[in-house]
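Wed. Picked up where I left off yesterday with Sarcosine oxidase subunit alpha. The coffee machine is broken again, so keeping this brief.
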Amino acid sequence: MQVSGSRLPSGGRIDREKPIGFSFDGRSYSGYAGDTLASALLANGVSLVGRSFKYHRPRGIFSAGIEEPNALVTFGHDGRRDPNVPATMVELVEGLEAQSQNRWPSLGFDVLAVNQVFAPLLSAGFYYKTFMGPTRRAWLFYEHFIRRAAGLGKASLQPDPDRYDTEYAFTDVAIIGSGPTGLAAALSVARSGARVTLIEQDGAIGGQMLSQPSEGAAADWLAAAGADIAGFPQITVRTRSTAFGLYDGNTIGIVERRDHLGPEPGQTRQLLVLLKAQSIIFTTGAIERPLLFADNDRPGVMLASAASTYLNRFAVACGRTIVVATNNDSAYATARDFAAAGSKVTVLDARPASPLADSARKHGITVLQDHQLLAAHGSPVSAVAFRSGSSEARLSCDLLLTSAGWTPSVHLTSHLGIRPIYDARIGGFVPGSFAAGHFGAGALMGDYTTAEAIERGAAAGLGAACFCGRKAEPHAIPTPDLDEGIARDLPALAVPRRGKVFVDLQTDVTTSDIALSDREGFRSVEHLKRYTTLGMGTDQGKTSNVHAIALMALARDQSIEQTGTTTFRPPYSPVAVGVLAGRSIHGHFKPIRRTPLHDWHLRRGAEMIEVGLWKRPLFYPEHGPDVGAAAIAEMKLVRSAVGLVDVSTLGKIEVAGPDALTFLDRLYVNNLGKLQVGKGRYCVMLRDDGIVFDEGVVIRLAEERFFLTTSTMKAADVQSWMEFLAQTAWPDLRVHITSVTDEWAMLALAGPRSRDVLAAAFPDIATDDESLPKMAVVTGTFAGEVLRIQRVSYSGERAYEIHVGSRRGAALADHLMAAGQPVGVEPYGVDAMGALRIEKGFAAGSEIDGTTTLDDIGLGGLAKKSGGFAGAVLSRRPTLTNPDRRRLVGLQCLDAGRQLRTGSILFSEGAPQRGHGIGHVTAVTFSPETDKQIGLALLSGGPERIGETMLATFPVRNEMVRVRVVSPVFVDPDGARIDA
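Structure written out below (tokens, as returned):
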């Protein structure tokens, strides 16, 4: 690795009493507390830190902040591997491991640097034009090699062991940025008594003030301001916190980094903060732009402000013979700082004159006016070429610093759709306007001096306090006496006509790429961005966008205002997916719902499974060692004796009101007009397009009160559909709809001995066939709670559903188990329950899949013959009544030892096995009743094909099984068992 730069013996804001060891590409180094990885590398003489995206050119540290385009590293290892992180934003901690990226076999010798030889062939959009053939699938061949040749870091494939949390916070005034503008605003607001949250992406407050000498007027002012901030308890300071997005309702998305705390067990690595503010002050500052010149990407080329940061904050002199190339006055402060540190400094000023030139010369700085920088030479830089008039010359150096003005950070102010406007005075874009309660000040608005920043920040603070209803009075805030240069009234952008001039360093976009984009018709800045990939890297073009817009404007012979800017969208800087997910991973990825009997199932050793959002018992190991054996045993139990199953997950909705019956009669396809109190009916509802939506049971509890159940998966959708119809289609109906899913525990007793258990459990309730015929309901009490018993079957056997308040669910299960002990009652799980319904041929979720009609699943006879219902008209469309539609049938597997699989595609014997076939298998189980593997399917022509032999193919596993089409009802087709 090349060497440049050294740690100064004193100065800076680092803690020299706390040395820190770290490694880069396997080599050990040391730094100090307060260092970033970038400053520590520079202090150790490391200038080569990465390779470029496309050409694999050597790259060095370019900036000192979040705008860094070159020094992207991967730090950590295994599950803590974090790629594409700017070294400028990584705080040094003991044992930090970092690796360079996008190089092979090593950073110093990268084989793919040969791409530079083929650079003329790798212009903007080359992949669109080069890799089009010779066949349509050729890209699949090319892609592997392209990904190897270009790219950034690689993420880990191992689970992340760290924790990410989410916090919801509230404040009166949020201030984004803690430079002198933000500090002045915070003090102004705090004096009104309002709550203030000060958000700073750095590890310390101060902004650019931290890049001033650690002793002097700036340091004294910052120390005093920090003490004042600490004296206001209503000011919350959030450091290491990047505001990455502004959202509706004055909500700010913030990521707080806690990597500096180290990988402690249970430590939150990053925190997502969703901050709700009444008013927002944007003091986000500005980012320095580089000059454009040939080979401007060499190691040893750096932004002038970045070099000042490393010198003054981290006590690192990045060079000893320095050229500062500029077109504005702000870079003169950098020149003075390095001259004071003992470096030999030459300023190349593109302007004919500067008011700071004479002062600079008094500091021993060579100032060359009207000199344009042409090129950098050497890697790292050893000389620069420049032009004055018609003559060209070279100048030796070991560090080249450039400054072409500053770009206000308008990203957050644009996230809600307010586009920035161009300010020719500063050569950059500023916020176009502000929403009510939003304020901006400081460098964001082009106010570049510290005095302007403090004055405008205090004024913005007063405005925000007043907006929040606070009484605020102006309060003078002292201003440090600083010798500053102003980056205004910049000369026109000068671009050398020869050599490779990079505009976007991260994605290797050059001036010639922008010219090519114009020639090929990609002239909108949005098209330019996507055709060249300019601004699409992790830095989002923070140092390149304005130059790109200016070059496009020159190519089109129009103003920058006419050319416009790209759309700024969140996030402002990359956000890890882990921090967005927070703790919503694995079992916490989505909400988990547990039935009132959840603990009861666990006590019996049930193997639980997620069904939608619910945890349900899949099977009980007491019935078999695995789900296959246990489910068969549980099915036999229900068919021969009696089983108990938890059906509390069914959706439960009460509908009440004078027009409740009318509402339900319109909602369901069934004729409910004659439904008596104390009776229930199996009902089906359609979507408005005539497709089956859901099925369930409607019970009439009273004249104007109904209780209905829905399928487990559709409960919320059905509730929403009902509310929609009540409020939009039939607003004249007096009806009230209430979800009571969580209010009731529901158990089903199924099997030929189910009534025996019921009679033993509730001797005071009449449960004989005359008192409780099929679909009837009786009520009573259990443990002081209302109890309902309904005779309804989902298994094909005599069965009863028992409803009780949720808190009595487990007690009810114990009571039924005790009462049924003489007849051998046992619980069974959802696998057996699903298999029982397949044997009986009941259409359920896998058949009611959003494509089937009533006739498709054999329920056409339920539809009322007169009177309308939701979806009735469109259900009669020719497409939905075509006899060739796929309709419900049963399947028997004919190949012994072969497995029929759900999802298999059905083909007629002898037909070509291509495409989607003529049907598909919706559900499969082994049937103890038939001693065969059976299934349900939706088959074109349906019932007319009963008796035919089909081929069921499963392409995923390259399997094929012969099946016979049969009736979907495998068990008790006459219903004698249910009626028994």
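Quick read: The domain at 883-979 is CATH 2.40.30.110 (Elongation Factor Tu (Ef-tu); domain 3).
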